[in-house]
Amino acid sequence: MMTTQTSGDVRLSGISKTYDNGFTAVQPLDLTVPQGSFFALLGASGCGKTTTLRMIAGLEEPSSGTVHLGDQEVTHLPPYKRPVNTVFQSYALFPHLDIFENVAFGLRRRGIKSVKKQVDEMLDLVQLGEQARKKPHQLSGGQQQRVAVARALINHPKVLLLDEPLGALDLKLRRQMQLELKRIQTEVGITFVHVTHDQEEAMTMADTVAVMNGGRVEQLGSPTDLYENPRTTFVANFLGTSNLIEAEVDTRSGEDIVLKAGGGKLVLPGARCSAPAQAGGKVLVGIRPEKISLTHADDAGEIPAGRNRITGKIAHSSFIGVSTQYVVDSAVCPEFEVYAQNVDRDPRLVPGADVVLHWSPAHTFGLDAAQDIDAGVETAGEEAA
Description:
Elements (H helix, E strand, L loop, with lengths): L9 E9 L5 E10 L4 E5 L6 H9 L6 E6 L2 E2 L10 E5 L10 H11 L6 H10 L15 H13 L5 E5 L7 H18 L2 E6 L2 H7 L2 E6 L2 E6 L1 H6 L4 H6 L4 E11 L2 E6 L2 E6 L12 E6 L5 E4 L11 E12 L3 E8 L5 E6 L12 E6 L5 E4 L8 H6 L3
Parallel strand pairs: 3-8, 3-9, 6-7, 7-8
Antiparallel strand pairs: 1-2, 1-4, 4-5, 9-10, 11-12, 11-14, 12-13, 14-20, 15-19, 16-17, 16-19, 17-18
């Protein structure tokens, strides 16, 4: 097949998976992963992300729809006939073979005799050249992970599929490997599709993230776009933390929407509202904890005009080095979270203090109030497998 600009694209059209017991793991979805991109499927356990990956790999038969890899439809091709390789969480290295032979395995199986140059180049890429003659058990988890990546890449797949590849590593090593995988992907330039439940992992590594929930893609976009402009409560709560306030639409002021909440007024840019905003209608107003400033009530007069503001009382605070995390009780939101950088800490900001929370209206986003305000909260914290 001739290589075209789309040879490494992954295109899913109307793909779905329903099992014999009637459980639908993946609702019909359309998804395009551009060639050469680092793409993440992010979501909690049971959201359909691994099933989607397995349908790309050919390990799972779709109930409907088609899978294209570049110009080739591969929906019914067995895994070994697809130009993809998969790296699993378990690594699945051969314990009796050394690292060199683990990486050379795919080439030797295809009958290629002279493998040394290719294997050496691949081991250099993953920075394991000096470990070539060690057995897998002599390497750390992170090194074994890199061997698994090298073994997959040496076959020159058009697409590398990564199924929770860092799940077994401790936090520090996982962070190192996130940067390492991103470097490798940039150097080889092939399409990586990475399944993870770890929000930070997806945000750190991927160019594009598809947030999945209940077998559907909730939202697709760059990490920055998903974080700054969530369009559903699930995305707002699952990616980081969001304060969500129930408010009523009062009036429109030019491009802005003026809202009533807890006896006060809040301003929301119309362009940042994904809900219908009719006068008298309800909207969920969202603001990220790090976008908010905290001022002691005695200094309320010094707050610049034009900022959204809410009064409350500090319920408790946690000092975590870089920042202090405050939880504030207010009329509009019982547990308002604020993250303040520890630059000039005000000693008066202690539990029981009356405070004013204030922020730029430009950082506010609006969501449809018909949604569950707590969607995504439970799953964000409890996910471990």
